[in-house]
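Changelog note: in this version the structure field was regenerated for every chain. One regenerated record is shown below for reference.
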Amino acid sequence: MDRELLISQLERHEGLRLHPYRDTVGKLTIGFGRNLDDVGISRNEAEILLGNDIATVERQLESVDEYQALDPVRQAVICNMAFNLGFRGLMGFRRMWAAISRQDWPEAALEMTKSKWARQVGVRAVELSEIMRTGEVQR
C-alpha cells in the first residue's frame, strides 16, 4: 500500500479537527476522523497526550518565580493543580501563592483546602495539600 497516498487522501477527505465534534452519524470524532465513541484512544496515545499536556503546564509555570523556587515535590503538586484547574485557575489561588512565597507550607496547604476546587476534587485536594504541607510523598 502507498501509505503517503492514503494519508494525503484521508487528510483531504476526513479533514483535520482539533476539537471533538459529532460526525454525520452522531459519533464523537476528533483529528482526522478518529471515532472516539467506538474506537477511543490507546493507552500509548493517552500517554502521548498526557506528556504533551504536562509539557504545556511546565512551560506556563516557567514564568512564575514562586514555582521556580519550589522543590521538585512541591512543583509536582502545583503542576497537578494546573493540569486540573488550568493555568489561569491556578493563578487565582492568590493566598496560596503568597504563603508559598513566604515558604509557609501549612498556610499554603490550608489555602488549598479552603477552595471551591478542594470541594470539587475531594481526596485529590487532601493528598496534594498534605504534600504541600510536608514536602513529602507517601508512596
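Spot check on this record: The mean pLDDT is 96. The CA atoms of residues 109 and 129 lie 5 Å apart.
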